[in-house]
Design a protein that fits this description.
The protein has 274 residues and is mainly alpha-helical. It has one domain. It contains nine helices and seven strands. The strands form three sheets. The chain has a three-stranded antiparallel β-sheet with strand order 4-3-7, with no helix packed on it. The protein has a two-stranded antiparallel ribbon with strand order 1-2. Helix 5 packs antiparallel against helix 6, helix 6 runs antiparallel to helix 7 and helix 8 runs antiparallel to helix 9.
Length: 274
């Protein structure tokens, strides 16, 4: 069981408060997103220490900055995608909730594979975020992951070569962030790194598949545009045309990180017992 020290908890509280404040100040997070980040950061740094905090910081900081790249071009997609660049509490929990849950499980049932699974969850979150933020800048139109048909930028379930390469880079960033700490958990560096990258890209592709098939998509009766929004054209209610209303982008992102964590845990469990 992880030893919880008051100094670590206080450090977690103050650093998380500072990070949440700065993220809100620079409009990377909404107010609710800042609150969620504060509590999540306090749990991870206060109870887990730097071995658990560094990877999620490596996910959060670059991912937030990437949302600012190509802002003018991404502004054109605001009528299609459900939410903008500022992340709210649901988005924070969708991307970091699974990882936080794994740490809490590790508190009571410590296991080396828990840390590997933690990295896999963040790898999936980073892979999807990098693919989304950088894939939107692709000069070539995206293709739907299910049938390869060209679709407009911003379409749920659409992928580009740039986006796939970005997902690989995002997953690799989490691998590098945890590589120093793997020896603490007696995890083989090469096996763990391969599993973390694979799980991240797998989760990102799962995200695209769910986006293309089950995520709710709507049509505006005023302009006939397809969108993820419930309201369009100045507050005009949209009609569900595909998928399920409860399968929002946040739910898809949560499943993405969960699938990355589960497949990563399974692969690591098998690898270290064969």
């Amino acid at each position: 069981m992880i030893e919880i020290q008051s100094q670590s908890l206080l450090t977690g509280i103050f650093l998380s408060a500072g990070l949440a404040f700065l993220a809100s100040r620079f409009r990377l997070l909404t107010f609710s997103g800042s609150i969620a980040t504060f509590f999540m950061g306090t749990i991870i740094l206060g109870f887990g220490g730097w071995a658990w905090a560094v990877p999620i910081l490596v996910f959060f900081l670059p991912s937030s900055l990437l949302s600012r790249i190509g802002k003018t071009r991404k502004e054109k997609l605001k009528d299609i995608v459900e939410k903008g660049g500022q992340r709210d509490a649901l988005q924070v929990l969708a991307n970091g909730g699974v990882a936080t849950g794994i740490l809490l499980i590790h508190l009571f049932h410590p296991s080396p594979t828990n840390y590997g699974s933690y990295l896999c969850a963040l790898s999936a979150a980073a892979a999807d975020t990098w693919a989304t933020e950088l894939g939107a800048l692709s000069p070539n139109p995206p293709r739907l992951i299910t049938n390869g048909k060209r679709v407009p930028p911003g379409t749920s379930g659409a992928v580009t070569l740039l986006g796939v390469l970005a997902s690989l880079a995002g997953a690799s960033s989490i691998t590098l962030s945890g590589i120093y700490f793997l020896s603490i958990f007696q995890l083989n560096v090469w096996i763990t790194n391969i599993v973390v990258i694979f799980s991240g890209v797998f989760g990102s592709l799962m995200d695209s598949l769910l986006g293309a098939t089950l995520q709710g998509q709507y049509q505006c009766p005023h302009c006939m545009a397809t969108t993820e929004k419930h309201l369009h054209c100045g507050g005009t209610p949209t009609s569900l045309t595909k998928g399920y209303s409860w399968m929002t982008n946040d739910v898809v992102n949560f499943i993405n990180t969960l699938s990355g964590a589960v497949i990563g845990w399974g692969l690591l469990f098998l690898a270290f017992r064969l």
